[in-house]
């Protein structure tokens, strides 16, 4: 395997033929921890779905090299009224290894208990999902990601509606995953948290404004540029497909002219 885990090659993603993010080019190295930041509607979740393979590119490519993927969608996309318990949710993480109808082995059960312990949910096995707080739900989702033993982990706003203590605990887990050689991309809004714990940052504003070391990406200049691109985006404009990049744009919309 190469050092590159993900490569975006002039990638455009969208819905019903309309671009939501466009002309992304860049790469993510294996074993790195990257914060994905940007305003609401800047395309962070769209990018996560593109990487996860849920959205197929309108044009360009997302080239990925990993064995197992764990994807935690934004909480707003989860249906917690489904009558399931914590253990049902977490044991879904074995699906990639055992298949949908495969039985858990004794080793799997030990593994599952260890993952629940790691996220502080021992004793919560039989709790219905709709009885969990936002923080407990996020802990359960992290336990499922651990069970999956993925080498690429995508977390979409895992710290939203989560108390400070849980954020601290989950950040420790994320760092442990990276120390184990896994690649993690995490969408979040708190720039102080990003600066303190995330060595790399990908800044979105319907395209990729910057991707690299956090202190070189989260600059005042880049944040202003991001705001300009975001404000200039026209959701109703026709799809251009011309491949022009942000650098041509001088702060103007490039895809939707
Ligand atoms: N399922 C969808 N169908 C149509 N448009 C969508 C869908 N999901 C997101 N969008 C649009 O794509 C753009 C980017 O959204 P999103 O990726 O959710 O941004 P973020 O996660 O940064 O808030 C927004 O204009 C949003 O309305
Ligand atoms: Mg989102």
UniProtKB/TrEMBL annotation:
Residues 6-231 form the ABC transporter domain. The keyword Heme does not apply. One of its GO terms (molecular function) is ATP hydrolysis activity. Keywords: ATP-binding, Ion transport, Nucleotide-binding, Transport, Zinc, Zinc transport. PROSITE patterns: ABC_TRANSPORTER_1 (PS00211), ABC_TRANSPORTER_2 (PS50893). Pfam families: ABC_tran. The keyword ATP-binding applies. It comes from the Bacteria. GO terms for biological process: zinc ion transport. Belongs to the ABC transporter superfamily. PANTHER family: IRON TRANSPORT SYSTEM ATP-BINDING PROTEIN HI_0361-RELATED, METAL TRANSPORT SYSTEM ATP-BINDING PROTEIN TM_0124-RELATED. This is Zinc/manganese transport system ATP-binding protein.
């Amino acid at each position: 395997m190469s050092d590159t885990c993900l490569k975006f090659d002039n990638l455009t993603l969208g819905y019903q033929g309309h671009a939501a993010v466009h002309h992304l080019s860049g790469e993510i190295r294996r074993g790195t921890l990257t914060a994905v930041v940007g305003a609401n509607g800047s395309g962070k979740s769209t990018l996560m779905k593109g990487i996860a393979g849920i959205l197929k590119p309108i044009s360009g490519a997302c080239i990925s090299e990993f064995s197992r993927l764990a994807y935690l969608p934004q909480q707003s996309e989860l249906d917690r009224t489904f009558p399931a318990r914590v253990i049902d949710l977490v044991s879904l993480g074995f699906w990639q290894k055992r298949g949908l109808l495969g039985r858990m082995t004794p080793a799997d059960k030990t593994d599952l208990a260890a993952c629940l312990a790691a996220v502080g949910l021992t004793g919560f096995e039989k709790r219905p999902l709709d009885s969990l707080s936002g923080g407990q739900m996020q802990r359960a989702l992290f336990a499922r990601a651990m069970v999956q033993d993925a080498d690429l982990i995508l977390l979409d706003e895992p710290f939203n509606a989560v108390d400070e203590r849980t954020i601290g605990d989950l950040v420790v887990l994320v760092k442990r995953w990276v120390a184990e050689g896994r690649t993690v991309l995490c969408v979040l809004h708190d720039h102080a948290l990003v600066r303190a714990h995330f060595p790399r940052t990908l800044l979105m504003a319907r395209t990729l404004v910057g991707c690299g070391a956090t202190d070189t990406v989260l600059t005042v200049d880049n944040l202003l540029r991001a705001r300009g691109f975001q404000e200039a985006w026209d959701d109703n404009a026709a799809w251009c497909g011309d491949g022009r990049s942000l650098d041509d744009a001088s702060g103007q919309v490039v895809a939707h002219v």
